[in-house]
């Protein structure tokens, strides 16, 4: 049985991370500030890293979309569980690089919690 709530949250996660990835490519300065560690995309090497992050975020969202389209509910749950390391690591990175606790916990921590709830809904369906 498919968890409608789990699939809805997974879909929102996919759309959000794809949008965040696109923002890292289209508006890297704004995206980096939203991440919690401002960066200067006028430096070519920094712009490259911001673009890399954008592409990887888009791909991560597409993985979720593909698993949803395939109806692989439990596999989707396991993938989202594994991917929860990303926002947890992001929170640590923000804290270690002068970002605020509000962004670390409010953005990245909250994302990890939503991902864990989504995982539970998908794996228990």
Question: Nutshell version of this structure?
Answer:
By secondary structure, the chain is mostly helical.
Q: Give the radius of gyration.
A: 15 Å
Biggest β-sheet strands, sense, barrel: none
Our estimate of the beta-strand percent is under 5%
The arrangement of helices and strands along the chain is HHHHHH
User: Helix count?
Assistant: 6
Helix proportion range: over 70%
Strand count? 0
Rounded to the nearest angstrom, the distance between the terminal CA atoms is 6 Å
Poorly predicted regions are none
Structural class: mainly alpha
Number of separate domains = 1
Question: How would you characterize the overall build of this protein?
Answer:
This is DUF4267 domain-containing protein. Pfam families: DUF4267. This protein is an all-alpha fold and 125 residues long. The chain has one domain (4-123). Helix content is 83%, strand content 0%. The longest helix has 27 residues, at 44-70. The radius of gyration is 15 Å and the shape is globular. The mean pLDDT is 96.
Itemize the secondary structure elements and their pairings.
Blueprint: H1 4-26, H2 28-35, H3 44-70, H4 73-83, H5 85-96, H6 101-123
Using brief descriptors, characterize the structure shown.
single chain, 125 residues, 83% helix, transmembrane, DUF4267, membrane, transmembrane helix
């Amino acid at each position: 049985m498919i968890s409608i709530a789990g699939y809805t949250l997974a879909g929102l996660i996919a759309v959000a991370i794809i949008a965040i990835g696109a923002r890292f490519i289209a508006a890297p300065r704004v995206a980096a500030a939203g991440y919690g560690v401002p960066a200067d995309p006028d430096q070519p090497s920094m712009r490259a890293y911001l673009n890399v992050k954008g592409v990887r975020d888009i791909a991560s969202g597409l993985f979720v979309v593909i698993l949803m389209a395939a109806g692989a509910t439990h596999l989707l749950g396991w993938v989202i569980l594994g991917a929860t390391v990303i926002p947890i690591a992001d929170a640590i990175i923000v804290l270690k690089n002068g970002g605020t606790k509000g962004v670390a916990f409010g953005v990245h921590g909250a994302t990890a919690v939503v991902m864990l709830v989504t995982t539970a809904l998908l794996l228990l369906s």
